[in-house]
Amino acid sequence: MRPLTDILRRPARAAKPVKAVEPGPAKPAAKKEESPDLLAQRDRLLEKFTIMQADLGGAFYEMAIRDHVRMDVLTRKAAELQRVDAELLAAERMLELERADAAGICPSCDSPYGHSVRFCPQCGHSLSPAGAAA
What whole-number distance in Å separates Cα of residue 42 and Cα of residue 58? Predict the structure, then answer.
């Protein structure tokens, strides 16, 4: 094993030249039919979710290093986070419906389905009014 002083005295290697990265295709802009209010709501919920998630992790870390973990506080914060996550999921599903021009969401599996479809393409659940009553 070589001594540390030999390693430190060794001349630095020349850095490899960095290749220029060509810009890829631009991301497609949001479609015109997407509701700006729904996009704003989704962005607001996503930011809130991210902050709450970091807060929950930070709270647990602080409690753990002090060896004083309070599960009731963590459980309450986790429940609030779960509620925001459910709202975020609902907003994203509504945006997905707008993008896909779907007729609705399957009551059985929550998948979007198209117009004039009698059965859910995901789970096979009947989407007709007579099938829903049965």
Answer: 24
What's the token pair of residue 134?
Answer: 């049965």
pLDDT mean by block of 10 residues, the chain; 134 residues: 49 51 53 75 95 96 95 96 94 83 78 79 81 46
Determine, yes or no, domain membership for 28.
no
Q: Which domain holds residue 114?
A: 103-134
Cβ atoms < 10 Å from Cβ of 126: 16
Q: How many domains does the chain have?
A: 2
Whole-model pTM: value is 0.55
d(CA 73, CA 99): 39
**Is 122:110 a contact under the CB 8 Å cutoff?**
no
Nearest to 71 by CA among 59, 86, 82, 89: 59
